Amino acid sequence: MQLFSIFHSFLTLYIFQLLFNVSYSKLNLKYAILRQKQANKSQNDTVAYQQRIKHDAQKTMRVIFYKNNNKTLETSAYDDFYDLKRSGCSASDKFAIVLHGWIQSCSDEWALTLIDRLSYYRGGCVICIDYSVVASSSYMRLYTNFDTLTGAISSIILTLFKQGFDPKRGYMFGFSFGGQLASAVGRSLWPNHLIESIDTCDMAGPGFDPIAVDHSKAGKHVQCFHSSRDKGTLVYSCHRNIMLGSCGLKQPSVASQLHLGSHGLCVDIYINTFDYPFYAVNSTPAECFTWQKAAKIPDGYTVGYEENFDSQVSGQIFVPTSLHYPYNLSKKQLRLLSITSG
């Protein structure tokens, strides 16, 4: 009788344990399904949020067309077709894309002056992409929207390609944050499309350095002008890295242009290269350190916008600058500088 009682107790305990395990398994399954649903909802919410942010960014961005230095058309970046007839541009034209930086817009003086110089020397169609609504907030907010802006600008350029624009006739310029965008957009278009030429001016460093990026993959010919150590990138991976002033880290003219600083002077110097010769030195200055090979510089070589890119000249190029506008040195001044530094 006692043995039967013990057996009965074990049997009851076993059945109870079995029922508990089944219930627990069902409970686990229920919570697993619930967690999966929550994860999917979270993922869907994230995707929806990203799509909304991209939509909002594109909605506030403007695509501004210039022909013969006249503004001919301003339209939303959200359009999937541009009225080229109204813009005066033709798909067979050369085209240039201009990208501004933080707390800037296509109405900034340097942007309008660059559009003027590109219209005069290059011709064709000049397109400034204005994302000033996003760029007018904090740098951190702008930085967190970097991928969104890259995608939106890439979509704009792809729309141009669909309408017949040829990447081989394309040029892109970006200043500061816009320089990082120009590189990222160019790399995102590859390998289906390759922009012929990209120039950047003191590409932004904060938030991007020290991550190594191969900017040379952004276009067929990529040249990057460097002018500051605090705001500009220290990643020198373009086909040409043009080190302005003192090793690309400081400009002598900052003493007379405090409101611009070494960073802001970069775009002014770049614009001046259209009209004034900025001569490169034939060797790396003794005070400058270089990780990259120094370019072989032909005598009398000048830097700036280059219509027919000389692929033989690549690597780091050192270009001394002066104290006063237009910030270039004459050949005589360059020789004297070489003698005194030697």
TrEMBL record:
Pfam family, one: Lipase
GO-annotated biological processes: lipid catabolic process
Main location: secreted
Domain Lipase, residue spans: 47-210
Gene Ontology CC terms, in alphabetical order: extracellular space
Keywords: Secreted
UniProt GO MF annotations: lipase activity; serine hydrolase activity
Keyword Secreted: yes
Record's signal peptide: none
Compartments in which it is found: Secreted
Family: Belongs to the AB hydrolase superfamily. Lipase family.
Protein name per Swiss-Prot or TrEMBL: Lipase domain-containing protein
Organism: Drosophila suzukii (Spotted-wing drosophila fruit fly)
Gene name for this UniProt entry: LOC108017942
